[in-house]
Write a structure and sequence with these properties.
Blueprint lengths: L1 E3 L4 E2 H9 L5 H7 L10 H15 L1
Antiparallel strand pairs: 1-2
Helix pairs in contact: 1-3
Amino acid sequence: MVVCICNAMTDKDIRAAIAGGADRPKDVYCACGKSAQCGCCTGTILSMIRDESAKAA
């Protein structure tokens, strides 16, 4: 599923970045070689980070 339309980032891209150690939306963008554009997806990315962190705990 596409999470960030501006950067064409999918949930798989974001989960891979999180698995690689990204723990802030800024880190996720950087790991994907992108940068924040409109910011609409930032909340979703943050939720995904929290969900993945809770699974790991």
